[in-house]
Amino acid sequence: MVYLDLLRKLDKIVKIPDYHLIGITKDKLYYISNVDETYDLWCSEHNGNNKIKIVSKPLLTSRVRKNRNKLYFSLDVSKGKELAKIFCWEEGKIKEIDMEPIRIFSISYYEDFMVYSGSSQQENVVHLIRKDSENEKIFSTKSWIFIADINKNFVIGSGTLHNNPKSMEIFIYDLNKNEYKVYTPKEGSFNTVSSIHENKLLFASNFEGRKKLYIYDISYNELYEPSFEGKDYLNYNFQDYTSYYFTEDGKVWFIGLQDYRGYAFLDGYKINHPEGTPTFLDVLGNEIFISFSSLKIPYSIFKTKINNGWEKILGSSLDKEIYESLGEVSIIKYKSFDGLEIPSIVYKTNVPNSKNAIIYVHGGPWSHVGDFWTPSIISLVVSGFNVIAPNFRGSTGYGEEFRALDIGDPGGGDLKDIVYARNYVKENKLGEKVAIMGYSYGGFMSYLATVKEPDLWDAAVAGAGVVDWEMMYELADAAFKHFQDILFGGRNDLRKDRSAINFVEKIKVPICIIHPQNDSRTPLKPVLKYIEKLLEQGKTFEAHIIPDMGHIITSIEDVYKILFPAIVFLKKYLG
Ligand code: 4NP
After folding, report:
1. Which residue's CA lies nearest to atom 10 of ligand 1?
2. Which residues, 6+ apart, have CB-to-CB distance to 48 below 8 Å?
């Protein structure tokens, strides 16, 4: 086998610089990029010139406000376990916030107020620091809570505050009265809030059926749909909204998903961008800055105006050899066991003499694959595999009903959807041999697929996967205990049945295990037990523990250490 050739191509893919927009101030552009081989926070002028690295490997950053070159970021202080501290950066000066390190979910600020939400072993919390005062815990709960925004009167966020696995409510904390309330337009509906403008909240909700955008005016206790000047958006039938924010002058921008692509709008007008998926945008006067990528365009930052062409500010293009290895991409739907249609990406390879396929299972489980830059899929295609990546039940992007289909049944119906993806590969002659591969929830599916349906695969790759939900629950902090409670939706009896560790004897195919040493979401410990059982039972496996790494990928080296062993393994067992 020609490892050198594989490594050379992989090297080209993982080293492609990507650029993700954080926001725009009057004179600066803030972004995350891996140009220096780690995912770092940078700042430049609006045209991308005069780049300055602010900090290496932040886990999270706040947004910026137009009139001030200031933001907050968090840094891991636990070698990847995601216990983090927050720092304030303003005009080149960095100040550490006085706090206990915790898992942080979101940070937001308004003038000299800063608020963050996070999770300790015991509880999920919201902390507030007012100008020159102590760090104060203002809310604690067993549920998930994500702070979205703050202004001079309110802190707002969303969470599973009624402890219903299928609903989300809105959290409103009154900074003047020091009181909070939970708001929902209808009990049991799913609501996520993003931003506040003059005491009005912008949120997405399914309370009238399909997910739509709404405004809730806190002062007048009024709920209505935003009205837009532009009517372009009416021609689109979104299955989901991925981002929606107020601009600083109170206009609304949003990104809607239709099939597997995203479309960005400002005040109802469609914004120009290439075919693919915008993920975030920021507006300054009549200039719009967009984070954008597609399956063939790495994450870039574009600048545009309404009714105007676009200009790339920061971005990369694909090397010729890589581009030429990429074949046709199509979006297909296949019927699963119960007739449910499962949308999937089929990405064919152009590498000569390729005859095998990989079922790529995305993580989350509440996320999706789409027309955006995905180095793991690209690496497989360039290595000579056809890839089918299904948006199995539970995926985002197809409405709330579809997303909630895995609640109370993880590793049940969704695993059957993966089995039917494999049937699709066989029926359409996409692969003589078929392997399953995934990271995180995708790794969980690889483990479970190989013990529940041992005859359907030729090999499996499980990255940062789950083998034992019971042990994992014991090891989890408050946030991930709650995550699992929601995912199982009260069906705790299923935890045993959905854990590969209870069925090790069934596995028949070689499995490649890749796991970060310090993963605090999907911990290594149960996987080590699994490996011991594989060893005792004489199963064929290889295991790669990535030292000092956590669940989150923070460097190009992390990407190599996951993808290179996986590809070498797949080449050996699939050819
Ligand atoms: P993800 O990982 O696929 O990266 O979101 C997961 C982490 C934890 C759990 C599930 C998936 N969990 O149930 O705790």
Report:
1. 441
2. 29, 301, 313, 314
